[in-house]
Specification:
The protein is of the alpha/beta class and about 200 residues long. A hairpin with a 3-residue loop joins β8 and β9. It comes from Salmonella diarizonae. This is Glutamine amidotransferase domain-containing protein.
Length: about 200
C-alpha cells in the first residue's frame, strides 16, 4: 500500500514523518495546505496525522471525498475534526483524563470490541492506551474496534463513500513527536506495519 503522510506543518508532524523508523513506510509527504494542487493517483492511503487544523481539511473536503470514491483509504488520527469534513461520522466531546494511570486501581476504561480484527495482530490494547479525546459514532456499516467506558467508540474501521476510513480519537503523532508517551510510538509502528501489509479487514 502506498501511503502519503498528510502534514499540518507542526513540529510533531515533522518529527513523526522524519523519524527513521517511520519514513520508509511513506511514499511521500503532503502539506495539507498544498493538497488541493496534488495529484493523488499514486497514493492508496492518506495518513492524516493527529491534531490538524480542521479548517485546512474542510478546505479539501471535496478532494478527500473524491479520493474515497476511487477506492482510497483515509487513516485519520485524533483531534482533526473529522466529523466536519467526512459525512456520516459523529464526534462527541468527552472528559480527557490525562492522569488516570496515577489513580488507585488505575483503569484506562478501554476495551477491544473487535479482538478478531487483523489490526490487533500488530497492536495490543496496551499499545493503544494513553488517553483519548472524545468518542465517535462510525458511519453505517462501520465496526468499532476499541471503546471507552464513558465515551464509546474511540477507534473504528468503516467503508465510506466507495473507500475506507480508519479513524481514532487517539493522538499518537502529537505524543510521539513531542517525545513522551511511549505507547504512542508503538501505536504508530504497529499501525504502519498493518497498512503496509495491505490493511486486511
Amino acid at each position: 500500500m502506498r501511503i502519503a503522510f498528510v502534514d499540518g506543518g507542526t513540529y510533531y508532524h515533522h518529527a513523526t514523518y522524519h523519524d527513521p523508523a517511520f519514513t520508509p513506510f511513506f511514499s511521500r509527504n503532503i502539506y495539507v495546505c498544498d493538497m488541493v494542487n496534488e495529484n493523488l493517483d499514486d497514493v492508496d492511503c492518506l495518513y492524516i496525522a493527529s491534531r490538524q487544523n480542521a479548517q485546512d481539511l474542510i478546505s479539501v473536503k471535496d478532494l478527500l471525498h473524491a479520493f474515497l470514491a476511487r477506492g482510497g483509504m483515509l487513516v485519520v488520527m485524533g483531534e482533526s475534526g473529522l466529523h466536519q469534513w467526512l459525512d456520516g461520522i459523529m464526534w462527541r466531546n468527552g472528559v480527557c483524563n490525562f492522569w488516570w494511570w496515577l489513580e488507585e486501581n488505575a483503569n484506562s476504561g478501554l476495551c477491544l470490541t473487535a479482538p478478531d480484527h487483523s489490526l490487533f495482530r500488530y497492536l495490543t490494547l496496551k499499545d493503544c492506551t494513553w488517553h483519548h479525546h472524545g468518542g465517535l459514532t462510525p458511519p453505517s456499516g462501520g465496526r468499532s474496534l476499541i471503546e471507552a467506558e464513558e465515551d464509546g467508540c474511540i477507534l473504528f474501521d468503516a467503508p465510506l463513500g466507495g473507500g475506507r476510513v480508519l479513524a481514532t480519537t487517539l493522538d499518537p503523532c502529537y505524543h510521539h513527536g513531542s517525545y513522551f508517551m511511549p505507547n504512542s510510538t508503538k501505536f504508530i509502528a504497529g499501525l504502519l506495519r498493518w497498512l503496509k501489509d495491505g490493511a486486511p479487514g
